[in-house]
Specification:
Layout: H1 7-32, H2 34-38, H3 45-48, H4 50-77, H5 83-103, H6 105-116, H7 119-130, H8 133-159, H9 167-177, H10 183-205, H11 208-212, H12 214-222, H13 225-231
Helix pairs in contact: 1-4, 1-10, 4-5, 4-6, 4-8, 5-8, 6-7, 8-9, 9-10
Organism: Streptosporangium subroseum
Keywords: Membrane, Transmembrane, Transmembrane helix
Protein name: DUF4386 family protein
Length: about 230
């Protein structure tokens, strides 16, 4: 059976590949961002380099989108330990990455406003738009809450023995530190890739039986009746 026709293999592979690809696309998007590369006073930078902003915002958008299959794959592995905690954390993480993806549209507006108007005026208008209560409550706060959810989901996965204890710390530190160019981008990118990638590799190396949970069910079924009864006490 091919990968595309086997649902277990397809879902497991998609989740693992996305967890490996998301950090790489994230760092690429940050490196393409002219304001992050320049640092300091960035007013007018987006207006001078709209093409670079377009590439950067698109890559950052896809870096968040790619996390969605990965997060779903992480949630799927939490079956016996911390199930409720892991699913709540996973839902919060999904909410966050979707909102961060939507926020990337703001970069396009900064670029066009700073180009069509005096740079300071264009940047001020864009700042005012993103400072709107709806933008803060609907996108920014849920986005950062989603990062907390991703961290907690990683802890739940570590508790379920499907990830090393350090992976959620590396992911969160990498995501937050990577926008600090250039050292933070290098170190943070490596941390993000290490934390997310170790989970992605485990998914890719996992058998479909382990992924589906059938191995645990079969192990329980193979135990003697008396041993099964003892386990339920």
């Amino acid at each position: 059976m091919s990968v595309l026709s086997d649902p277990h293999t397809l879902r497991r592979s998609a989740a693992g590949i996305c967890l490996l690809a998301a950090p790489l696309v994230y760092v690429a998007g940050l490196v393409a961002d002219p304001a992050i590369r320049q640092g300091g006073d960035t007013v007018g930078v987006y207006g001078r380099y709209p093409e670079q902003v377009s590439v950067s915002a698109s890559l950052l958008h896809w870096s968040w989108v790619l996390l969605i299959p990965g997060i779903i794959g992480m949630i799927h592995l939490i079956r016996h330990r911390g199930v409720l905690f892991g699913h709540v954390a996973g839902g919060l993480a999904l909410l966050g990455v979707v909102n961060f993806s939507g926020l990337m549209l703001g970069d396009f507006f900064y670029a066009r406003l700073e180009r069509a108007l005096p740079p300071a005026e264009g940047a001020m208008l864009a700042d005012e738009a993103l400072a709107d209560a709806g933008a803060r409550l609907g996108f920014q706060i849920p986005g950062f809450a989603g990062l907390l959810g991703l961290f907690l989901l990683g802890l739940a996965l570590a508790h379920a023995r499907h990830a090393p204890w350090w992976s959620p710390f590396a992911m969160l530190a990498g995501i937050l530190g990577a926008p600090i160019f250039p050292i933070g981008t290098s170190v943070g990118g490596l941390l993000y890739l290490a934390g997310s990638g170790v989970i992605g590799l485990r998914l890719l190396r996992m058998t479909d039986v382990e992924w589906s949970g059938e191995a645990v069910v079969q192990e329980a079924a193979d135990k003697p009746v008396g041993e099964n009864l003892a386990d339920t006490r």
